[in-house]
Amino acid sequence: MTALDFMPAEKAPQAGTVALGATTNNAVAVQVQQQQHRRLEGKVAIDDAVGEALAAALGGACCTYVHCDVSVEADVERAVGYCVARHGRLDVLCNNAGVLGRQAPPASNGAKSSGIASLDAAEFDRVLRVNTLGAALGMKHAARAMLLRRGGGSIVSVASVAGVLGGMGPHAYTASKHALVGLTKNAACELGEHGIRVNCVSPFGVATPMLVNAWRHGEDEEGGALPAPVSAEEVEKTEEMVRGMATLKGPTLRARDIAEAALFLASDESRYISGHNLVVDGGVTTSRNVIGL
């Protein structure tokens, strides 16, 4: 899992905004970095080689790598503490670490590997620990840091359209994202009193290695490793499938679109928005679509 501190300087609540984020999606980080007038200030990763390489690519002067497993509270507390110790405060948290979950072979009775009759309790728990507990731990320690400076700040989590509709993903993933949307709203109710905004972004299918591998092999990773590399042809095929399901025709959903949505919710441009789930799906959830993962 990787994480990134990012904030566009021209949209920041103040100069030198300090942000911390955890993610398994390097594509979002890279897309943000490639846009002009963006400033990135840190990152966290569980794959040290990937983390160090991405931090260097984004610019060592404004981007810091810290090893972190979001499902381990001590790691999350350490990452937040490092950020506060280095910068004196924390302004923004972005929770973007997530896994789709490995799928078991079909059951002997022919039941789908992703079906409820084949549910693997250990795998279900693993997915929720990363996707839901990880975000909750991030919110907990970010809130503590933000309250130390007498409030203010923004917490943004990346959920999914699977947290809006049924039939959009495996059971564990769907449950974890529904829980994350609910947690976002509940935390917003509590932290709003202190001027801390809590929101989430729910993307449809961005053709990241995790999604391409899931649609190709039925799993996002093997043994906790990062998703396998994918070809340009596989990415295009996935994007074509996504375009076909969207009611909005023309654009292709890219990591940049999700990054822009997260940046908007992190910035003062959304200063009166809290408890909101910003769906970035080209209208997919306005019609009946069932993927059947």
Automatic annotation (TrEMBL):
SUPFAM superfamilies: NAD(P)-binding Rossmann-fold domains. InterPro entries: NAD(P)-bd_dom_sf (IPR036291), SDR_fam (IPR002347). Keywords: Oxidoreductase. GO terms for molecular function: oxidoreductase activity. It holds the Pfam family adh_short. The keyword Iron does not apply. It comes from the Eukaryota. Belongs to the short-chain dehydrogenases/reductases (SDR) family. This is Sex determination protein tasselseed-2. It comes from Triticum aestivum (Wheat).
